[in-house]
User: Which sequence fits this backbone?
């Protein structure tokens, strides 16, 4: 039972990472300047690395990817992208802000994943080859960077003009 549950849990997070990478593509188109575009490029590389680590963990555990769940994540991101397009058409900064909020929520899920696996690794020897503490810190740093960008966008979007 635990192996099946772990497979389901890891696949859900893999699907989330697929959605996050798709969302980053949409957010990059909402970036209003070169520093924001660079921020998205760097974050994308980090999330791709995290996704590769998750896939390596799944391979090590003999867990197959659930293609249907990955496809559902891809489709869900397309709805989010449409929502961003509508928002951004009237207010580009608001589109950037909302995209960052969606992304931040997903990264918080990644933090929760690595923390949970770190706790489980104590009792599951198959998980001991991964540095979940480091992965958790990296995801937390990603969230902090997204949060800084998000708050800057909020100030820009909602500050009263002089």
Assistant:
């Amino acid at each position: 039972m635990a192996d099946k549950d772990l497979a389901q849990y890891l696949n859900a997070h893999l699907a989330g990472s697929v959605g996050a990478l798709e969302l980053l593509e949409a957010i990059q188109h909402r970036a209003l300047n070169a520093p924001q575009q660079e921020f998205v490029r760097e974050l994308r590389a980090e999330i791709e690395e995290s996704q590769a680590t998750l896939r390596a963990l799944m391979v090590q555990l003999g867990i197959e990817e659930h293609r249907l769940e990955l496809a559902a994540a891809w489709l869900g991101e397309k709805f989010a992208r449409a929502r961003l397009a509508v928002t951004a058409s009237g207010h580009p900064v608001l589109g950037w802000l909302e995209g960052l909020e969606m992304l931040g929520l997903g990264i918080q899920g990644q933090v929760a994943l690595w923390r949970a696996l770190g706790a489980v690794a104590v009792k599951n020897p198959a998980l001991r080859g991964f540095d979940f503490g480091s992965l958790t810190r990296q995801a937390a740093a990603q969230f902090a960077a997204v949060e800084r960008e998000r708050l800057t966008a909020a100030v820009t979007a909602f500050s009263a003009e002089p």
Observations:
- Residues 88 and 95 are 4 Å apart (CA to CA).
- The chain has a mean pLDDT of 85.
- The domain at 2-156 is CATH 1.20.1260 (Ferritin).
